[in-house]
Structure formats: structure tokens, C-alpha cells
């Protein structure tokens, strides 16, 4: 069965929260994700509730949990037996914000945060995709489980990419090429503002991005200079293969052969959302050659991880590798499927944070 809950939810310790919901006995405790990941509920599990106490069906809410639209809260008795599941709505943009005392109002809605605000280290994460929604509790799970992060020691922000602000825009109709580029321009500017703000708070700021997020990281350096304390960029490209990038700019399907070099171009998707996400991705790479844009930039604080078998973006060319090394970046070569890049997160963070 699908691994649900399993990798996308997070609570670190048992917390007594039964009193938060009148329909949950105070004697029950909230189960942490590590426990829940080891044993998910059966498909016929009961009882399941929405936050207002309305009963739900587990099989019906499971797909929404998988899509990060509902957050599962499992309550157990003193012996750890599953007794009740509450699902919390995560689709309201107004509920997403950065919880930091001195942050300007203009930046409050630019991400989702967790961890220790008093830490002197801030990690800003850039989602892959692109997608038009921001993960919240899934981000916590990613950093705690895949990244091995102790959030008592860090303040972590999942930054909003601009297409997540008004998701209906990319679902309603096909966007123009200029609009696709504007999304990325706004996203890079948001990253610059967040880095600048936390640096003004005397924090060390590290940027982490995979896939589409790695392109955002490069664009921010190109547009606003290398201002963070370090960057971990995974499974992206500096100079994207033109044939693939051109295809994406038209909403066409495109990838690489098993050699991670030879392009394969398919048909245009009949799904508006897919077309728009491809356009936004391409707008970071079709006309942007980062070996040119960053030719005068020192990248000694950049760790760049690429895969030799990456059929989604292709592997780095010899020119790209030579460029990164000439700019003093640390280049790490792995063999992993593109979609599994989060498995690299823990080791990448160790390099980035010098742990």
C-alpha cells in the first residue's frame, strides 16, 4: 500500500493534545511520525475525524494526505494502540507563514517555518517541481527524517515560490512565457529578501534546493550575488540542454535517454497545470546559461550534487563540471534517479554545515 503518512508527516515527541479536540479523550496522546511511519492504519481504520468533529472515511482522506492537503494526527492510548485519527486541512494559504518575532510583515507570508527561532543558523529550503503549493508538515518530515536535522539547533524555512501564492492562476488557463519568467523573477527576489533579512539578524543563512529549487538558487546568485553563507544545490543544471528546455517552454514532455545525455521530446500535455509548470521550469533555463551569468562569481560556498543517471534534467557536461570546479565549488557525483534526490539530503547537509 502507498506510503502515506509515512514520510510526509511529522511530530517529534509524544505531546498531550487530546484536549485540543473535544471529541478526543484527554487520556490519548499524539503519535510522532517516526512511530506512525513504522505501522500505518488499516484501510478500514476507524474512527477518523475532520477537525470540527465530522466523521470521515480513511480510504477517502488518504489521497488528500498523500497530496499534502490534509495532515494526519494519530492519537494513541498509553500502550501505543491507535485509537483515533484527526485530519487537518492544509489548503488554506492564509494559514501559512514564517513564525519569527522580528520578521517584516511583507515577508511573513513568504514561507513556512519550524525549529528554533533563537538558533544562529537558518536553513532556507527551495522546493523541487515546480508545483503550485507549499508543503508544510511534509517539509518538517523531509528535514527531520531525510535530512537528519535536529530542529532544536536550527530555524528552518520552506520558502514560497511565487506560483504557490495564487495556485488558481496556473490551473485556470495557460500562462504566457512572460508570466512564467515573472514567476521566477519574483521567486529569486523573495529569496534575496529572506537571506538579507536573516543576515541582518546576525544569523548564518544556508540555502538548500533540489531539482527546480537548485535552478532558483542559481538564479538568485546570478541576480543578487552570492550573499548566503552556503548553498546546497542538487540534481539541477547550469546550462540546460537546449532541446529539452525549448520543449518545456512549449509545454511538451521532455527527458533524457538512459545515458542522461540524449534528449527525448514528446507531445504537449493536455493538462493546463502540467503545461504551466513546464513553462515555469523552462523559464529558469531556456535563456539562462549560468556558466556565463556566474563567470565572475566565486562559488566556494556552493556544494553541487549531480547524478550521472539523471534522466529528468540530464547529467552535468564536462564544461559545467569544469566551470564549477574553476569557481571553487564542491562537486559531488552520484548515481541516483532524479526523483530520489532527497536521499542525498542528509549527506549534503553534513557537507554544507560542516557537521
Q: What do you see in this structure?
A:
The chain has 355 residues and is α/β, with parallel strands linked by helices. The chain has 2 domains: 5-89, no CATH class; 93-353, Alpha/Beta hydrolase fold, catalytic domain (Rossmann fold, 3-Layer(aba) Sandwich). Helices cover 31% and strands 20% of the residues. It has helices at residues 33-38, 58-66, 105-108, 137-146, 169-172, 177-200, 212-224, 242-249, 272-282, 290-293, 318-326, 345-353; strands spanning 29-30, 48-50, 55-56, 70-76, 82-89, 111-115, 121-126, 155-159, 204-210, 230-234, 252-256, 263-268, 302-307, 330-334. Helix 6 crosses helix 9 (272-282) and helix 8 packs across helix 9 (272-282).
Q: How would you summarize the topology of this molecule?
A:
Elements: E1 29-30, H1 33-38, E2 48-50, E3 55-56, H2 58-66, E4 70-76, E5 82-89, H3 105-108, E6 111-115, E7 121-126, H4 137-146, E8 155-159, H5 169-172, H6 177-200, E9 204-210, H7 212-224, E10 230-234, H8 242-249, E11 252-256, E12 263-268, H9 272-282, H10 290-293, E13 302-307, H11 318-326, E14 330-334, H12 345-353
Parallel strand pairs: 2-5, 7-8, 7-9, 9-10, 10-13, 13-14
Antiparallel strand pairs: 1-4, 2-3, 4-5, 6-8, 11-12
Helix pairs in contact: 6-7, 6-9, 8-9
Task: Please name the defining characteristics of this protein.
single chain, 355 residues, alpha/beta, Rossmann fold, seven-stranded mixed β-sheet, five-stranded mixed β-sheet, 12 helices, 31% helix, globular, disordered N terminus
